[in-house]
């Protein structure tokens, strides 16, 4: 039974700004989306995720894809909000399966059942949608080049993110540390010592608004603003420090202030960042953040030596882990 596995990602710097051409850095992390495929002869594809099963007749796959493409066109014309392109989460998976078939020039649809097994929180800034699509394209498509796979993951992901950037696709496909600017994707190498000690991710709950909705709201308020140059300078400083093995404290703090100014850091996360800074650390939202509600998805914490997030006043439903790189990117696992 073939299994595809794709890592999640965390954006170290430049989220939102990357949509306007500024550079951004993302790291593939050791949380994974695994999709197990069991072929059979029935004329349908079934999809098992989170104790729910969705079944689609093979004859419906192409019409679903065409319907979603036309929804996206309507979104671009301002006739449909981003949240209405996909009507059910499973549609994204069926779309990616059919795109894999079309892009690989195959006439025959894959038959069988797909089972998802993922420890990437959904809608939290850890790239679950990109990981899902990357795993499906890897399972059912044939891509000779990594850049082509990245481009196609992004193409499918537009149904979820609207006018988003290529950063999530780049990180989950290539693995390790990536730098993205516009359409350009570059793989960077961390120093031999890796990220170093003191880096954690903190999950503060699924935001009330999706990534696509946050991107659209920020676009409405800040599309032509000069603040993106400040983001670009911060990302450049963070990259230089990261590659030299220096402390990221100042650039993460500055990054947090910029994200707060564009309105994607909910109040409880601002309070936490303040407490972290008072104790000599730094914290920032990673990914889209949230433009409404108290949950902001994922945060990056950089804590002083010997300290862990357990020593912070966290809300009971928040959870955290040590930040660890996955150097590999999407792959097929041997049985
Ligand atoms: N474990 C899963 N089971 C089923 N569908 C999933 C799963 N993980 C992701 N998805 C799909 O991805 C969508 C979530 O995409 P969204 O872009 O909102 O979040 P994300 O990718 O986790 O966050 P971000 O893009 O900010 O990093 C879901 O609605 C669903 O279509
Ligand atoms: C918020 C954003 O910058 C990152 C989402 O993971 C959106 C994007 O780049 O598509």
What does this 3D model show about the protein?
The protein is α+β, with helices and mostly antiparallel strands. The protein folds into two domains: 3-191 and 326-333, 2-Layer Sandwich (Ribosomal Protein S5, domain 2), CATH 3.30.230.10; 199-322, GHMP kinase, C-terminal domain (Alpha-Beta Plaits, 2-Layer Sandwich), CATH 3.30.70. Helix content is 38%, strand content 23%. The chain has nine helices and twelve strands. It has helices at 58-76, 89-103, 128-140, 146-161, 167-174, 211-222, 227-244, 249-261, 267-278; strands at 3-13, 24-39, 44-49, 52-57, 112-118, 177-181, 184-188, 199-203, 282-286, 298-302, 319-322, 331-333. Strands 1, 2, 3, 4, 5, 6, 7 and 12 form an eight-stranded mixed β-sheet that branches. A four-stranded antiparallel β-sheet has the order 9-10-8-11. Helix 1 crosses helix 2 (89-103), helix 2 (89-103) runs antiparallel to helix 4 and helix 4 (146-161) crosses helix 5. 48% of the residues are buried. The mean pLDDT is 95. The structure holds adenosine-5'-triphosphate and (R)-mevalonate. Residues 11, 15-16, 18-19, 125, 161, 164-165, 167-168, 211, 215, 287-288 line the site of (R)-mevalonate. Residues 107-176 form the GHMP kinase N-terminal domain. This is mevalonate kinase. GO terms for molecular function: kinase activity.
């Amino acid at each position: 039974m073939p299994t595809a596995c794709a890592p999640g990602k965390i954006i170290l710097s430049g989220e939102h700004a990357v949509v306007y051409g500024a550079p951004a850095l993302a790291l593939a992390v050791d949380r994974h989306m695994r999709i197990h495929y069991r072929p059979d002869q029935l004329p349908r594809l079934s999809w098992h995720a989170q104790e729910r099963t969705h079944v689609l007749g093979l004859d419906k796959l192409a019409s679903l894809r065409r319907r979603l493409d036309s929804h996206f066109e309507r979104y671009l014309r301002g006739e449909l909000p981003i949240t209405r392109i996909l009507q059910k989460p499973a549609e994204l998976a069926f779309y990616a399966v059919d795109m894999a078939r079309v892009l690989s020039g195959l006439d025959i649809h894959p038959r069988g059942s797909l089972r998802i097994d993922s420890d990437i929180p959904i809608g939290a800034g850890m790239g679950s949608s990109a990981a899902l699509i990357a795993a499906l394209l890897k399972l059912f498509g044939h891509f000779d080049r990594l850049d082509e796979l990245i481009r196609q993951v992004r193409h499918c992901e537009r149904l979820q993110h609207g006018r988003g950037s290529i950063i999530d696709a780049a990180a989950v496909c290539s693995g390790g540390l990536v730098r993205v600017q516009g359409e350009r994707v570059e793989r960077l190498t961390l120093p031999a010592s890796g990220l170093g000690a003191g880096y954690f991710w903190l999950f503060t709950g699924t935001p009330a608004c999706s990534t696509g909705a946050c991107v659209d709201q920020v676009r409405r308020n800040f599309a032509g603003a000069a603040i993106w140059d400040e983001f670009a300078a911060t990302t450049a400083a963070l990259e230089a420090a990261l590659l030299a093995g220096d402390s990221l404290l100042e650039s993460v703090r500055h990054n947090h202030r910029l994200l707060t100014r564009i309105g994607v850091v909910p109040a409880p996360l601002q309070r936490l960042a303040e407490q972290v800074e008072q104790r000599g650390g730094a914290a920032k939202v990673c990914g889209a953040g949230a433009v409404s509600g108290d949950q902001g998805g994922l945060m990056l914490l950089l804590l002083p030596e010997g300290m862990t997030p357990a020593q912070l006043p966290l809300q009971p439903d928040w959870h955290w882990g040590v930040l660890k790189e996955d150097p590999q990117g999407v792959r097929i696992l041997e049985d």
